[in-house]
Amino acid sequence: MEFGGDVIALLMGVAFVAGLIDALAGGGGLLTIPALMAAGIPPVNAIATNKLQSSFGTASAVVAFARAGRIDFRRFRWPALGAFVGSVFGAWTLQRLDPAFLSGLIPVLLILMAVYFLLAPRASEEDRHSRLGTTALLLIVSAIGFYDGFFGPGTGSFLATALVALFGMGLVSATAHTKLLNLASNVAALLALIVGGKVLWTLGLLMALSSVLGGQIGAHLAMRVGGKVIRPLLVVMSLLLTAKLLSDPANPVTAFVLRMF
């Protein structure tokens, strides 16, 4: 697919904002996926290209946390493998669904993720006793990995919430290990989608540059303002982009609603 310079610049701008928001509150995919689809990119290609650009930011975060000694690679090697395998199956499933079905499903998923980000409670800062064991951790992470391979937005928040609420980790530790697990699922989905020929490489790499820059700025802002103000903004922007997708009469959800009236 070919895009004009204005479209590429706009998508790079969205990737920059998404990278910044990811560092502050998570959920940058809530912006990049609908923006890619609004530019006329088919759903599977949009998700694949988003995986390419988001993997760079996640990898840089893993390196930063690892250098600070925040990641227990030995404890999380099997959960990371579970996230990888689950994500491969998620991406495999994604590529076998009807594109028309995906065009209708994705706006619904985006709305659900926006509501989740709006209502999700703040996580605890303190380490606590784990409620579940290693097997449960492996199964839960694998299931979230499947979701990441299939769609993606909200994966980091789901992982962090699970690690805090079910496995007793403090927010900083949960965030560090979430990045490791998210990197495993991102890379797995990306590889599966590369094999399927779904990645738009030039666009994805340009967006990756913007995403990494936004993430670096967001990391510094996070120490000052945190995600309290950013999260409502993320929800509003996501819903506006979703409304843009649903404004197309050819969208299956829109067409279904119009037939009812």
From TrEMBL:
Keywords: Cell membrane, Membrane, Transmembrane, Transmembrane helix, Transport. It comes from the Bacteria. The keyword Transmembrane helix applies. Its main location: membrane. PANTHER family: MEMBRANE TRANSPORTER PROTEIN YFCA-RELATED, TRANSMEMBRANE PROTEIN YFCA. Belongs to the 4-toluene sulfonate uptake permease (TSUP) (TC 2.A.102) family. This is Probable membrane transporter protein.
